[in-house]
Automatic annotation (TrEMBL):
Lineage: Bacteria, Pseudomonadati, Pseudomonadota, Alphaproteobacteria, Rhodobacterales
Compartments it resides in: Cell membrane
Keyword Kinase appears in the UniProt entry: no
Single GO cellular component term: plasma membrane
Domain ABC3 transporter permease C-terminal: 264-376
Topology of the protein relative to the lipid bilayer: Multi-pass membrane protein
Bilayer-spanning residue ranges: 20-39, 259-277, 304-333, 353-375
Protein name: ABC3 transporter permease C-terminal domain-containing protein
Keywords: Cell membrane, Membrane, Transmembrane, Transmembrane helix
Organism of derivation: Roseivivax halodurans JCM 10272
Length: 387
C-alpha cells in the first residue's frame, strides 16, 4: 500500500502530463479492441468455409453472369455430387439506402447446398418451394421488421427491373429460416429463380455463380480444373475455386485487411511507446534528486527500479482496461445494430488476453530505460540535479 500511495503521489505532481499520457494509452487500446474482432470475423469467414464446396464464376469478372445451361454440364463431371446457382439481387426495403442481403436461387436445392441455415417448419418450406412468387426470410430479418408467413413484402432492386420497367418486386413471405449454428447469420432473403427469371427485363437464363458440392475434398483442385476445361475458349470462360480462396480473393479486391490493420496497430503502439517513454523520461529526470534522497534513506536500487516499473505498468493497465472496455461497448452496439459480417463482431477473452499481454509488454519496454538510468545514477549526481 505504501508503494501504491507513493506512485499516486508522484503521478499527482504533473497531472496534465499524466492525463495526456493516459489518454494516448486509452486511444491505443481502444483501437486495438475495435480492430481485433474485425480481424477475427474476416478470418472466421475464411477458415470455416466448406472445403467440399467450389465456387464457379465468370473468369472475366465476378460481376458478369454465366449461362444457366452450365449447371447441367457441371453436374456430369466426376466428383460432383450436386450443383446449385446463385444471383445477387441488390435489394432494399422502404428506403433505397436500407439495403437487405438478397440472393436468387433454386428453392429445391437451397436447403441442401447451404448448410449454414436450417428450416424448422417443413410445412412452410414446402409452401415456399411450391409458390414461385414467395421468398424465404432469415429469422433476424423477420424479427427486425415484424414479418410473418403470408405477409407481402415490396423489395426495390438496384440491379434488376421487372419486364414492365418497375424496379419494385412484391413477394409473399413463404417461410422463415433459422441459423444452423449460433454463429450463423440469418438476416437475408432468398428469392426463387424461376419467378425472377421470368419477370426480369434483362439477363434471362443467366446466373451470378455456381456452387458445386463435391464428394472428395482432396480432389477439389482437380475438379475445379476439370470444370474450367469444359468451358475453355467459350464466350463465358469460368474460374473455379474453393470457398476459402473465393473469400480471400474477395477481401483482396478491397484491400488486404489483415496487413493494413496489422500495420496500423504496429504504428499506433510504436507511437504509444515513444510518447509514454518520453513522458516517463521527463518524470524520472525531474525526480533524480528524490531518488538520491531515497538512496540515502536506505532504498535499494532494485526497489527504485521496481517503483518505476510499477508506475509504467499502472499507467498501461489503467489506460488499457479503459480503452478495451470502451471498445467492448462500441463493438456490442455495432453488432446489435449491424448486418451481415458486422453481426458477428464480439470482443471475447482472446482479445482481452492479447490486450493484457500488450499492456504488460509495453509497460516493461517503456520502463526499461528510465529504470536502468535511475538504478545506475550516483547519489552525488542526483543531489546535484536537485540543487
Amino acid at each position: 500500500m505504501r508503494l501504491v500511495s507513493l506512485i499516486l503521489r508522484n503521478a499527482a505532481r504533473s497531472r496534465a502530463r499524466v492525463a495526456f499520457t493516459l489518454g494516448s494509452v486509452v486511444v491505443a487500446f481502444l483501437l486495438l479492441g475495435l480492430m481485433l474482432p474485425v480481424l477475427r470475423v474476416f478470418d472466421s469467414r475464411v477458415d470455416f468455409a466448406d472445403a467440399n464446396r467450389l465456387m464457379v464464376l465468370n473468369k472475366a469478372s465476378m460481376m458478369r453472369p454465366l449461362p444457366i445451361s452450365y449447371g447441367d454440364r457441371i453436374a456430369e463431371l466426376d466428383n460432383v455430387s450436386d450443383v446449385g446457382h446463385f444471383t445477387y439481387f441488390g435489394a432494399s426495403y422502404r428506403d433505397p439506402g436500407n439495403e437487405i442481403p438478397a440472393i436468387v436461387t433454386d428453392p429445391a436445392k437451397f436447403p441442401d447446398l447451404v448448410d449454414e441455415v436450417a428450416f424448422r417448419d417443413e410445412g412452410t418450406l414446402s409452401d415456399w418451394q411450391s409458390d414461385p412468387s414467395s421468398i424465404a426470410v432469415g429469422r433476424e430479418l423477420a424479427d427486425e421488421y415484424g414479418w410473418q408467413e403470408g405477409d407481402l413484402v415490396p423489395l426495390y432492386s438496384s440491379i434488376y427491373t421487372r419486364s414492365d420497367g418497375n424496379p419494385v418486386w412484391t413477394f409473399r413471405v413463404g417461410t422463415i429460416f433459422d441459423g444452423a449454428t449460433e454463429d450463423s447469420v440469418t438476416n437475408s432473403v432468398v428469392i426463387p429463380y424461376g419467378f425472377f427469371n421470368t419477370e426480369r427485363s434483362r439477363g434471362k437464363d443467366t446466373v451470378g455463380w455456381y456452387a458445386v458440392r463435391i464428394d472428395d475434398a482432396n480432389a477439389a483442385e482437380v475438379t475445379g480444373e476439370a470444370i474450367d476445361a469444359v468451358f475453355e475458349n467459350s464466350p463465358n470462360e469460368t474460374a473455379t475455386t474453393t470457398e476459402r480462396a473465393f473469400a480471400k480473393s474477395f477481401l483482396n479486391q478491397i484491400g488486404d485487411f489483415k496487413t493494413m490493420i496489422g500495420a496500423a496497430l504496429i504504428l499506433v503502439f510504436w507511437t504509444l511507446v515513444l510518447i509514454t517513454a518520453n513522458a516517463q523520461m521527463q518524470s524520472i529526470r525531474e525526480r533524480f534528486g528524490d531518488f538520491a534522497v531515497m538512496r540515502i534513506l536506505g532504498f535499494r536500487k532494485r526497489r527504485i527500479a521496481g517503483m518505476i516499473l510499477s508506475e509504467s505498468l499502472l499507467m498501461m493497465f489503467a489506460g488499457g482496461v479503459i480503452g478495451m472496455a470502451v471498445a467492448a461497448v462500441a463493438v456490442a452496439i455495432v453488432a446489435a445494430n449491424g448486418e451481415a459480417l458486422l453481426a458477428l463482431l464480439k470482443l471475447d477473452w482472446r482479445d482481452w488476453a492479447i490486450g493484457a499481454g500488450l499492456m504488460a509488454g509495453t509497460g516493461l519496454v517503456v520502463a526499461a530505460v528510465p529504470a536502468t538510468l535511475a538504478a545506475r545514477q550516483k547519489i552525488t549526481d542526483g543531489l546535484a540535479e536537485a540543487l
